[in-house]
Design brief:
It contains seven helices and six strands. Helices cover 58% and strands 25% of the residues. The model has no long low-confidence stretch (mean pLDDT 87). The protein folds into two domains: 3-85, Winged helix-like DNA-binding domain superfamily/Winged helix DNA-binding domain (Arc Repressor Mutant, subunit A); 109-171, no CATH class. By secondary structure, the chain is α+β, with helices and mostly antiparallel strands. The chain has helices spanning 3-20, 26-35, 41-53, 72-81, 87-109, 145-157, 159-171, and strands at residues 24-25, 57-62, 65-70, 110-118, 121-130, 133-142. The protein has a three-stranded antiparallel beta sheet. Strands 4-5-6 form a three-stranded antiparallel beta sheet.
């Protein structure tokens, strides 16, 4: 791979991170990059590692997951060299990644996770966020991790349905 190709690929990855404007897990980023045939898996991992090492992208940890986003230095590099990105690529990102952006935000606004409080006691936390504010929060104390996982899995499959059912029950 030539130096120019690597530099352009790094700009492409920075452009995607900036366009989505939401921190992404490695698996989310990998899925979307592979689905849209931007890079192969190994190229993506190399570029992501290199961008993080050089301070153009940053990993952050939240709820046990590592999320990647563009760093200020990456935004500056994109401003300075963004015109080197091909027009077809910018159009591809704007077409294919806009729906992803909404899907990720929707998923992140409906949060379900659990943690171990003490032996034989787990706390399951379910939340609905809107515009950065919590509009619904429910914590449930359960006796084992299996039940906690099951509740979170059900929440992640159909949070809107569960939320509306709870609200309907409480208001009827």
């Amino acid at each position: 791979m030539s130096g120019n190709k690597i530099a352009q690929d790094k700009l492409k990855l920075l452009y995607i991170l900036k366009h989505i404007d939401t921190p992404l897990t490695n698996s989310e980023l990998t899925n979307f990059i592979l689905e849209n045939d931007v890079f192969d898996y190994f190229t993506l991992q190399y570029l992501l590692g290199d961008l993080c090492d050089s301070g153009f992208a940053v990993p952050n940890f939240k709820n046990g997951h590592e999320y990647y986003s563009i760093a200020p230095a990456g935004s500056n590099a994109l401003e300075m060299f963004g015109e080197k990105l091909p027009e077809y690529f910018i159009n591809q990102v704007e077409q294919n990644f806009s729906s992803l952006k909404m899907e990720i935000r929707k998923h992140r606004e409906l949060i379900g996770h659990y943690y171990k409080r003490k032996e034989d006691e787990y706390i399951v936390s379910l939340q609905v966020m809107e515009n950065g504010s919590v509009i619904f929060s429910l914590s449930i104390n359960v006796p084992d991790e299996g039940i906690a996982k099951h509740i979170c899995e059900k929440w992640n499959i159909s949070p809107e349905e569960i939320f509306s059912s709870i609200i309907k029950t409480l208001t009827s």
